[in-house]
Amino acid sequence: MNMITPTRTLRIALVGNPNCGKTALFNLLTGSRQKVANYAGATVERKEGRFTTPQGHDIRVLDLPGAYSLVATSPDEAVTRDICAGTYRGEAAPDLLVCVADATNLRLHLRFVLEMRQLGRPMMLALNMIDAARRKGMEIDLPRLAAELGVPVVATVGIRRDGARDLLAQLDAPLPPPPVPLPDETDLHAVVRRILADCVTRAHPASSELEERLDRWVLHPVWGPLILTVLLFVMFQAVFAWAQPLMDGIDAGMGWIGEQVGHMLPEGALRSLLVNGVIAGAGSVVTFLPQILILFLWILVLEESGYLPRAAFLLDPVMSLAGLSGRSFIPLLSSFACAVPGIMATRTIQNPRDRLVTILIAPLMTCSARLPVYTLLIGAFVPHRAVWGFLNMQGLVLFGLYAVAILSALLVARIARRGGRGQEAALLMELPAYRLPNPRDLLLGLTERARIFLMRVGTTIVSLTVLLWALSSFPAPPAGATGPAIDWSLAGRIGHLMLPVFAPLGFNWQICVALIPGLAAREVAVGALATVYAIGDAGADTDQAAMLGQLLPAHWSVATALSLLAWYVYAPQCIATLAVIRRETASWRIVAITAGYLFALAYVMALLTYRLALLF
């Protein structure tokens, strides 16, 4: 046997079916000591972490993408297969494979464990959710199961603080020898049935009455869609209602910082750069962090609770109206948070045409980067009052924007699928057990999202707002010039050059200026507007970012605000999204088609919105 020495870093890989609790176990082991990237030469996400065992051994762990079989049908499964087999280019083979299986669903998960055994590499089995299996009356003979499989077997509970105690003890032991592969002609399904009969008993019938009762409501053809609609509706209401106190606190804090900086510096270019460029630009975007995190919290809770696969199954008939299947639902729902991971999640769709259509419509999902623009315009132009005594009108408008985007996406998908050959196979999905979301996993997910957002604010957004400040400040107006100084600047000239194209939409030249840096990231438009109006307003000082919502109604009509909202529902104002489409499809033609149809749709819908708003 190979012995683990304290000076050696052991490389292990967590591998298993989707919904086995593998990521929860990864979070339990690594905590905050983890990083996310992509595998070299692939778009598949790579999660790696480190931890130390009770006896001081350093462990490097990979959380491999979920797979149902080593006969890969998607890029995710191909990466998992190649890394486990030690054939992935640029990635050393793991010293130990830790197969994670859902103890409540061994019939499905053991088959994959047997496939892993055929690789002939050192491995062990972690029976996760063992507590849930016991609550269902299942008794699993772990020593006998280990003897049948020829590998060590430990019980784990990924959502408990000490749920990996037995796993850590096993990692402190010598590495197990590689298991002996089964003969090639072995019927793995028959082996699974025999192992279950020998190793698993039920002390009493499975106590799944609660899950069955919930599923009778959640998957009901009438009540199911109604429950989903209510959940989404409450989610969008919460984005406004829950976030407002936090937003007010951040806004006040950024205003105080700007005021202090303004008092410390003399009047001049440096003060203008810091106050009106950096603080007003970045601060106006940071203010919306609570709304973005609340949106992510809802999506994480729906995912962790086991509801998302049920929603996908429930919406399969609705998606079929657009020529897609329920498999497209989860990538599209992920796109509400950010289109980039949503587009990457389409790798689970096996039908190439369905995958392409899902990629094409993913940018139409209202991502979190649009929230700052929506919130600014809705807060400035939609009254903050109750409807029917308990609904927030601003939340209703936000829900309407999301609904319009979804309906538009389904219509575009239907048109794109018209005349297509071959349909996605009938939807077969594993419905995981309901479970309470683990607060640790939710906190890690939200922390990672906040870190990414703040890094984006500190790099891309600040850089663009500083660039816009420079364009808005130079050249200075000549002596004796009248009117705002920004009219003489490069930004003013660019805005006036664009104005003939966008004037039919009701846009002024300030909006045209804000659209340019907004191409890099949608939320930059808010900081750009704050910068433009702060520069353009004589005597503007530290409160411009906070005052932007009050300034806009004096400069814009309601029709202009509605037109800009319509523009942002459709326009592809995100270079990162276009870049990931290029990476996933390996086609600049698809990128051009996506950008072209989205810009055309944005222009037409903004024009219609503006004209209809003027009529009414």
Brief rundown of the structure:
Helix content is 58%, strand content 8%. It has 616 residues and is α/β, with parallel strands linked by helices.
Keyphrases for this structure?
single chain, 616 residues, alpha/beta, Rossmann fold, 2 domains, 7-stranded mixed beta sheet, two-stranded antiparallel sheet, 11 strands, 8% strand, elongated, ferrous iron transmembrane transporter activity, P-loop_NTPase
How would you describe the overall organization of this protein?
It is built from 27 helices and eleven strands. The protein has 616 residues and is α/β, with parallel strands linked by helices. It has two domains: 10-206, P-loop containing nucleotide triphosphate hydrolases (Rossmann fold), CATH 3.40.50.300; 223-418 and 438-615, no CATH class. The strands form three sheets. A seven-stranded mixed beta sheet has the order 2-3-4-1-5-6-8, with helices on both faces. Strands 7-9 form a two-stranded antiparallel ribbon. The protein has a two-stranded antiparallel sheet with strand order 10-11. Helix 10 (243-264) packs antiparallel against helix 11 (269-286) and helix 19 packs across helix 25 (558-570).
